[in-house]
Design a protein that fits this description.
Blueprint: E1 2-3, E2 17-22, E3 25-30, H1 35-41, E4 48-49, E5 56-57, E6 70-73, E7 76-79, E8 90-92, E9 114-122, H2 126-137, E10 142-145, H3 166-169, H4 175-190, E11 194-197, E12 200-205, E13 211-215, E14 218-229, E15 233-235, E16 248-250, H5 251-260, E17 263-264, E18 268-272, H6 276-287, E19 291-297, H7 306-314, E20 319-321, E21 323-329, E22 336-341, E23 354-357, E24 360-363, E25 367-369, H8 372-379, E26 384-386, H9 396-413, H10 422-431, E27 450-454, H11 464-468, E28 474-475, E29 486-487, H12 497-501, E30 507-515, E31 520-527, E32 539-543, E33 549-559, E34 568-575, E35 584-585, E36 594-595, E37 606-608, E38 613-614, H13 615-623, H14 629-636, H15 649-658, H16 680-683
Parallel strand pairs: 2-8, 9-10, 9-14, 10-11, 14-26, 16-24, 18-19, 18-24, 19-20
Antiparallel strand pairs: 1-17, 2-3, 4-5, 6-7, 6-8, 12-13, 13-14, 15-25, 21-22, 22-23, 23-36, 27-30, 28-29, 30-31, 31-34, 32-33, 32-35, 33-34, 37-38
Helix pairs in contact: 2-4, 2-9, 5-6, 6-7, 9-10
Length: 690
C-alpha cells in the first residue's frame, strides 16, 4: 500500500502535504484528500471496531451510501470517505458509541433560508452535467448540487476510452477527460445561469415541494419549479462468510482510491462480478501496477463487453465463469478468498473449491438506482424528472445522452421553445442496450500490404474507428451504431489512428510488407500499461485475443507521442503465419488457486452491517411468516443503522427469494428522511462562535 507515483494514463499532480493524526499517530494527507484515502495511503484499512460486537470496520462504498468507514474527526462522527482532511485534524477510531458533545449553553440558532429556482439538478455526474448544459444553452436558470468537491461523478474515475457515438457522447475519449470537457462546457454556457454547489448533499424532499440541501455544513431549503434527480447508483452487495471484513469493498470504491485519489490500496486483489464494472476495475488495477489474481462470474458467460474481457485475459487474468465467492477469511482484514463452482441454479458444487491468497476482494455484482428523492417527489406531486442511473442503469455514455434529453424536456416545461430531434430517443435506446450477439467473420485483408485487423465481434454501441479513418475505409452497417465495424477499403494508409482510438483495444495494424525475405510481418499493437519493462529487440511471448498462447515475437520499438492520447504502440516483429492470430504480448503470469474446503458458517453471515444482524435471525422470522420488512425492522433493527437500509434491503429481499417467497407478497420498508446523516445542529441552523 502507499501512493501511486507513476501511472500510464493519469498525471501525478504536485499536492501539498497536510498533517493530521489518527489514533494519536501523526500522518500526512494530500490537500483536498478524504480521510479514508489518506489512511489507505498509510496502509491502514481498519478504521475502527463496531460497538456491538467489536468487529473490524473499514471502507466499503466510498460514496457516502453506507457507514462502514465511520470515524470521529475533531470530536464528531463522520464518514471517512466523504470528509476532507483539514490541517491539524484529529481523527480517532470509534470506541463504543460516539459521545455526545458537551454543551453548557443553548447555542444560537438562525432561521433556515429558502432559495427559489426554476430548476434544481441533484447530481453533478454525466447525466446531471449534461442536463445543466442544455438548461444553460436555452437560458434557463438553475442550481446544480453535488456532494463531492469536484464535478464529473463516476467520469472522474474512468481512465479508459468511452464506447458509444463519437458525435453524441464523446466516444473514443477517456472518461476523466470527458468530465473536464463537460465542466468547461457548463462554464461556457452556464456562467451566471447555473449556480454550482459543491460539497452539498440533498438530504430530503418535503411535502411542500422544498428540497433540503446541506450546503457545506449549512442547511438550505431549495424550492424549485422543476426538479431533476441525477443521483446515480449505488453498488449492490453480496452476503457470504467474511463479507463484512475490511478489504471487501465495492469496485467503485476501488476506482475512487486508485484513479481519483492516486492511492495504491492493495497488492493482490480478486474480483467478483464479470459485468463491465468488474472487468474495467480489473484493467484499472493492472494499470496501477496491482496484481489481479482472478475474477469470478456466477453466470456461464461474463455480461460485460467482450473486448473488456479479452483485455483482461490477454494480460493473464484468470476468469472463472459459473463460479462464485464462497467465503473470505482473515482475522481483522482479508487474507484469502475461497471460490467454488455453481450449477445452473447457482447451487454450489462440492469439491470445486479454490483458495487464493489476496488482501482485497472487489464486489462488482451490479448497481441499484439512487432514486429515493425522485420517488418521494413524485409522491408529493412535484414536477420531477430522473436521468442517468437514477432512472435506468446503463453506461455513462447513455447517461450523458439521457441527461441531454431530460435537460431539453425541462426547457420545454419552462415554456421556452426547444427542439428535441426525434432521432435522439432512438440513440438513447441504443446506448442503453445490453451487449448483443457475437458474430465472427473472416476479416478483409490486403495481401502484401498494410491493413487493420478488427477483432470487435460483439454488437455494442461504438463508432470511433469509423470516424478517424482518413480514407473512410472502416464502416458499420448503414444507419446502425451497434453493427460490427469492418475494414472495407482497397488501401490503408497505415496511420494507426483506428488502433489509437478503439476503446476496446481490439484493433491491430498488420504490415505484410515488413520483411518478405524472411517471411516476417510487423504488427502495431496498442498498450496502456507501464512499458518500462518492454525493451527494443526483446523477444516476447505472443498471445491471441483471449490470452491463448501463439508463439514468440520481437519488439522493434514502442511509439509514444502526445498525439497518441497516452496510448502507446508496440511495434512487434512476428512470423508471417502468426500475423492474423496475435493480439498482444504476455506481460504477467496467471495465479493458480490451491484446493481447499469451505467453512460451514453461512447462517452467521452478516446481512445488516450497521446493526450486525445475521442471515439466521432474518430467515427465522421469514419462516415464522413475516412478510412485512417493517416488522423485521421492528424485531431486529434491520435498516435502522446509519445507512438507512441502503446496504441490507436488497439482501433481505434475496433471502425471501431463497425461502421461496414471492416478492409481490413482501411489504417494503417505509423510507424516511434524511437521505444521509446530518447533525441536528445543522437542521437547527446552529451557528458556532456567535
Amino acid at each position: 500500500m502507499g501512493r501511486i507515483e507513476k501511472h500510464p494514463i493519469l498525471s501525478i499532480p504536485k499536492r501539498q502535504d497536510i498533517s493530521f493524526t489518527f489514533n494519536s499517530k501523526k500522518l500526512t494527507a494530500k490537500e483536498e484528500e478524504v480521510i479514508s484515502s489518506a489512511l489507505f495511503a498509510h496502509g491502514i484499512n481498519v478504521f475502527g471496531h463496531h460497538p456491538l460486537d467489536g468487529s473490524p470496520q473499514g471502507l466499503y462504498c466510498a460514496n457516502g451510501q453506507c457507514a462502514h468507514c465511520m470515524v470521529v474527526a475533531d470530536g464528531l462522527p463522520v464518514k471517512a470517505c466523504m470528509t476532507v482532511v483539514s490541517p491539524g485534524m484529529t481523527v480517532q477510531s470509534l470506541k463504543g458509541n460516539p459521545k455526545m458533545p458537551q454543551e453548557d449553553t443553548v447555542p444560537k440558532m438562525v432561521n433556515v433560508r429558502t432559495v427559489k429556482t426554476p430548476c434544481l439538478v441533484i447530481g453533478g455526474g454525466p447525466a446531471g452535467l449534461s442536463a445543466a448544459i442544455e438548461l444553460a444553452k436555452f437560458g434557463v436558470r438553475g442550481i446544480l448540487v453535488d456532494d463531492k468537491h469536484t464535478l464529473g461523478g463516476k467520469l472522474t474515475l474512468q481512465t479508459h476510452n468511452f464506447f458509444g457515438s463519437r458525435g453524441d457522447c464523446y466516444a473514443g475519449t477517456r472518461g476523466i477527460d470527458i468530465a473536464h470537457l463537460l465542466e468547461e462546457e457548463l462554464k461556457e454556457y452556464g456562467g451566471g445561469l447555473v449556480d454550482v454547489w459543491l460539497n452539498s448533499s440533498a438530504v430530503g424532499v418535503f411535502c411542500d415541494g422544498k428540497v433540503g440541501i446541506v450546503k457545506q455544513g449549512n442547511h438550505v431549503l431549495v424550492k424549485p419549479d422543476i426538479l431533476l434527480v441525477a443521483t446515480g447508483a449505488r453498488e449492490k452487495m453480496l452476503a457470504f462468510p467474511g463479507c463484512d471484513l475490511p478489504g471487501v469493498y465495492g469496485a467503485g470504491a476501488f476506482q475512487t482510491l486508485v484513479n481519483r485519489d492516486l492511492v495504491h490500496p492493495t497488492e493482490r486483489l480478486f474480483i467478483c462480478g464479470g459485468g463491465n464494472v468488474g472487468l474495467i476495475s480489473g484493467y484499472h488495477a493492472l494499470q496501477a501496477g496491482i496484481d489481479v489474481v482472478g475474477l469470478v462470474e456466477a453466470l456461464p458467460e461474463c455480461g460485460g463487453y467482450k473486448v473488456h474481457l479479452d483485455k483482461l485475459q490477454r494480460l493473464g487474468v484468470p476468469v472463472y465463469t459459473s463460479y462464485t465467492v464462497c467465503c473470505v477469511e482473515g482475522k481483522d482484514c482479508v487474507e484469502k478468498v475461497v471460490i467454488c463452482g455453481v450449477d445452473e441454479r447457482f447451487r454450489r458444487i462440492p469439491s470445486t473449491e479454490k483458495i487464493f491468497q489476496v488482501d482485497t476482494l472487489l464486489i462488482a455484482v451490479g448497481l441499484s438506482p439512487v432514486n429515493e428523492i425522485y420517488i418521494k417527489a413524485k409522491e408529493y406531486g412535484m414536477k420531477v424528472f430522473a436521468a442517468g442511473d437514477a432512472e435506468e442503469i446503463a453506461e455513462a455514455s447513455a447517461a450523458m445522452f439521457n441527461g441531454r434529453i431530460r435537460g431539453r424536456k425541462i426547457v420545454r416545461e419552462t415554456g421556452k421553445p426547444c427542439f428535441i430531434p426525434e432521432k435522439w430517443n432512438e440513440i438513447a435506446a441504443v446506448l442503453q442496450s445490453k451487449p448483443g450477439k457475437e458474430i465472427e467473420k473472416s476479416p478483409h485483408t490486403l495481401p502484401g500490404k498494410v491493413y487493420p485487423l478488427i477483432r470487435c465481434i460483439q454488437e455494442i454501441p461504438c463508432d470511433p474507428c469509423t470516424k478517424v479513418c482518413p480514407g473512410n475505409a472502416i464502416k458499420v452497417k448503414e444507419g446502425t451504431l451497434t453493427g460490427q465495424p469492418s475494414f472495407e477499403g482497397d488501401v490503408c494508409l497505415g496511420c494507426a489512428q483506428c488502433v489509437l482510438v478503439c476503446p476496446g483495444l481490439a484493433i491491430v495494424l498488420v504490415d505484410e510488407r515488413y520483411d518478405t525475405e524472411h517471411k516476417r510481418a510487423l504488427l502495431t499493437l496498442p498498450v496502456e500499461l507501464d512499458n518500462d519493462n518492454i525493451g527494443s529487440c526483446e523477444e516476447v511471448t505472443t498471445v491471441g485475443p483471449w490470452g491463448q498462447g501463439i508463439g514468440t515475437g520481437r519488439v522493434i520499438g514502442v511509439r509514444s507521442a502526445a498525439s497518441q492520447d497516452r496510448r502507446r504502440l508496440i511495434l512487434l516483429d512476428v512470423p508471417f503465419e502468426d500475423r492474423g492470430h496475435v493480439a498482444g504480448i504476455k506481460l504477467r503470469e496467471a495465479t493458480e488457486g490451491t484446493r481447499g474446503s469451505v467453512p460451514s458458517a453461512e447462517e452467521d453471515v452478516i446481512i445488516c452491517r450497521c446493526e450486525r444482524v445475521t442471515k439466521r435471525e432474518i430467515v427465522q422470522l421469514i419462516r415464522c411468516g413475516y412478510r412485512d420488512m417493517n416488522q423485521i425492522k421492528a424485531a431486529l433493527r434491520t435498516g435502522m443503522g446509519a445507512c438507512g437500509g441502503k446496504t441490507c434491503t436488497e439482501l433481505i429481499l434475496g433471502l425471501f427469494r431463497e425461502e421461496g417467497v414471492d416478492l409481490k407478497d413482501v411489504i417494503l420498508p417505509v423510507h424516511r428522511l434524511p437521505e444521509t446523516e446530518v447533525p441536528l445542529g445543522v437542521f437547527a441552523g446552529v451557528k458556532k462562535g456567535m
